[in-house]
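Good morning C.,

I know you're traveling, so I'll keep this short. The sequence:
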Amino acid sequence: MEISKTKIILASIIAVVIILLFSAMYIVDEKEQAVVFQFGDPVATSIAPGLYLKMPFIQNVMKFEKRILEWDGDPTVIPMAGDMFIAVDTFARWVITDPEKFYKSVMNISGAQSRLDDIINGVVKDKVPLSTLEEIVSYTGMSEGGGRLAVVQTILDEVQKTLK
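The tokens, ready to paste straight into the viewer:
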């Protein structure tokens, strides 16, 4: 049984079409978001889940988490007034709201973790020594104007101002 040249050509064309079709599509899961790059420059952002099209071999896709991410700093001993020291263990929860801006500023999750290390640890080391030990240890409500919640809010405000 001999296979004709037309069948081989037809099978080759179908294979090429299937390869082009699959390389022209990408799927965004409900827990991720994507940025489409063309020659290294971002050209489109896909935030909603679904099936999307791109130009095969010219555009590539980078996906980022949409879920809440966590940052856990190293425990640090910070000097207080007098001869006192306090051990502080910091953590943060964060989310990528603009994947294109995220890529342009830190490129990936490890770059973001490193930047958060620098920013949060710096702010904590600056703000904690300005508070008294009583303010840090007591859990006084914000309505009373002091306590650990006020110190934490001051740190959060400073970190958010730095990140914008």
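Safe travels,
E.
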